[in-house]
Write a structure and sequence with these properties.
Layout lengths: L1 E6 L4 H12 L4 E5 L14 E5 L15 E6 L10 H20 L6 E5 L17 H20 L3 E6 L1 E3 L7 H9 L5 E3 L8 E3 H10 L10 E4 L7 H12 L6 E3 L1 H6 L2 H4 L3 H4 L10 H10 L6 H14 L10 H4 L6
Parallel strand pairs: 1-2, 1-4, 2-3, 4-5, 5-6, 6-10, 7-9, 8-11
Helix pairs in contact: 1-5, 2-3, 6-11
């Protein structure tokens, strides 16, 4: 019997979590989409790679597996997704993994990764504004409802923008435009916030959750409480990259009324730009209990910006060496 299975193990968060679990001496099953087994770059004697299609109720031929901790890091994360494609993974897939976990005789915990925007009070799925965020919100609600019906011990982690090697979507695209001189103004105002959290910290946070019984049934909004407002973040990175910072900001209300062809800002991205603030008290309390220390915000931003530059903003391929070297050699 393996300790843990990680769905979405070839992805940005999943691969970092696999490395963290192996570093902690766990035996791990990495579950990936059929045909993508080679994307798991880690080689380790305590790691097994299997194919699993979470869009199917039986997930494929993995019924014989026996694990105690189930991590679902699988998601369709992109802008401009078709609603059906987004729901197949982010809604139906989330429920399928939970139903599979419910059949495990020795299940200790299902840890599901969602997103920080689902924690906004009154937040509703709106597929007209974008399928990614809408499907994650719908999936979060469906997961909790099904977990209650099946009495599955579940914990949901809602991360903000996760920064680390391999993150090239969203905020990274804004940094790319900054570097290339294509960011004439900062979207939003002085209170606009795109909160961040460092990849290694979030992977360790996930890994430790099942060790504490009181985390069952809890949802944690995981972000750096020192995340700077977006104008300050952009100016900090401009200084680090030694490029001019935009002098002006454009209110979100104005951007939402203007054609995307004129502003160069995709409407779906605007959903992640807001003045909302998020309650992280439970996540910080758990981190303190588990002995987790969040790295300095400015250090995280500098190192991530350097990685973006070194990797050509992902155009030269995603570098996984920093993830692979975290695991023990076989």
């Amino acid at each position: 019997m393996a300790d843990s299975i990680v769905f979405g193990a070839a992805g940005f968060i999943g691969s970092a979590l696999v490395a963290r679990l192996l570093d902690e001496g766990r035996t791990v099953i990495a579950a990936v989409r059929p045909g993508s087994e080679s994307r798991v770059r880690i080689r380790h004697p305590d790691l097994t790679v299997v194919a699993a299609d979470i869009t199917k109720p039986d997930l494929g031929p993995i019924d014989s597996l026996a694990v105690q901790d189930v991590y679902n890091c699988a998601a369709r994360f992109a802008f401009g997704l078709d609603a059906a494609d987004a729901r197949a993974v982010n809604v139906d897939g989330a429920v399928h993994v939970l139903e599979w976990a419910a059949r495990l005789p020795a299940l200790r915990r299902l840890v599901h990764v969602s997103g920080y925007r689902v924690s906004v009070p009154g937040h509703r799925p709106d597929y007209r504004a974008g399928a990614y965020e809408a499907s994650k919100t719908e999936g979060d609600r469906a997961l909790w409802q099904r977990a209650a019906e099946l009495n599955v011990p579940v914990t949901v982690a809602n991360p903000s923008t996760v920064l680390g090697p391999g993150q090239y979507i969203g905020l990274a695209e804004m940094v790319r435009d900054l570097w290339q001189g294509k960011l004439p103004a900062i979207p939003g105002g002085r209170r606009t916030l795109v909160p961040i959290v460092e990849l290694g910290y979030f992977a360790e946070f996930l890994a430790r959750i099942p060790e504490y019984p009181e985390t069952a049934g809890a949802a944690y909004t995981v972000l750096d409480p020192d995340s700077p407002a977006l104008p300050d973040l952009i100016r900090f990175l401009a200084a680090h990259l030694d490029v001019p910072a935009p002098r002006f900001t454009v209110p979100l209300g104005v951007l939402r009324r203007l054609p995307a062809a004129l502003t160069g800002v995709d409407r779906e991205r605007l959903a992640f730009l807001s003045e909302d603030r998020y309650d992280t008290s439970t996540a910080q309390a758990f981190a303190a209990r588990a002995g987790l220390v969040m790295p300095p915000t400015e250090t995280v931003l500098r190192e991530w910006a350097d990685h973006l530059m070194d990797s050509g903003f992902g155009e030269e391929g995603t570098r996984m060496s920093s993830v692979v070297t975290k695991s023990r050699s076989s």
